[in-house]
Amino acid sequence: MLLAAMGGERSRGEQGAAWAALAIGATLCVTSCGRRGEEPVADPSSARGGQTEAQRQLAADATALPAFDVEAGAEDLRSAASAALGSSKETPAPTCGPTHSYDYIASDILCDDGRSPFLGDLRAAMGTRSGSVGTGPSGHVIDLYEVPCPEGVKQIYVDMYDCDNASPTRSEFEVQSLMLGVLGGDTAPYIKRCEQEDAKRASGRISVLLQSCVTGMPGVLDVAGDRVAALKWLKEWCASADGKAEDGAPERFVYLHNVIESELNLTMEANQGGKGDDDVREQLTRDFTAACKVERAAFERWRSTQGEPE
Prior knowledge:
4-stranded mixed beta sheet; alpha+beta; 13 helices
């Protein structure tokens, strides 16, 4: 369903639904998913495909936020996106996977006037990938992006397999900063930014922040004491998760599982859980399966096949 949703001409309503499915697809990860950098990204040197392949990869990538130094400041991020990196095939910008590459283009590439032409929009950045240009110094396939700027097209070369040297993007830094605020008791900035990103998705905009919000917002709203808003958010996004994940599992099951585990982790980190994990999981499962119109027994049977929660 996710792959079909990404092709062809669509009305505005259909496009909104398709990109909602894409945002859902990018969050579909059960406990076996790892973080960026734990395992190398395979380098399919024979893959010279264009945007169709890139779109397919986007739906499967970005299943978890990458780990990075949250103490890095804005200047550190700017230096990571210096003009030297990405300016040629010999000095490609190091990224890790398709979505991180799109986000690097969408968030970190600035025109001469100091502005980003995409403001974090993964879909728009993905559309500027012109294709692969052969192998670089690392032996990896290098991708070329042609970014429109007022001064003319800016060519950016990216090595999406250089996970060891990849740096966090501005968007990733924002997500991490907002979540640190949540853990510190300040939920308002995260909620506000999620609402802003959600309001923009009707136009087809998808961002790293929205991908975080899709799964994280119900838990943050719950921590903020607004269970009504949490269930409303959950119902809307559950309705969008009506296809199958790559392993054949119902998307709605995988999404719901991620939402429950995300809230459990959040309440544990925020030290707000007076009950044991099992009790909290039981309560969330009862309330959230009802909100998502998921048969609880079927969901729990599926969840039991996924191994022990981390």
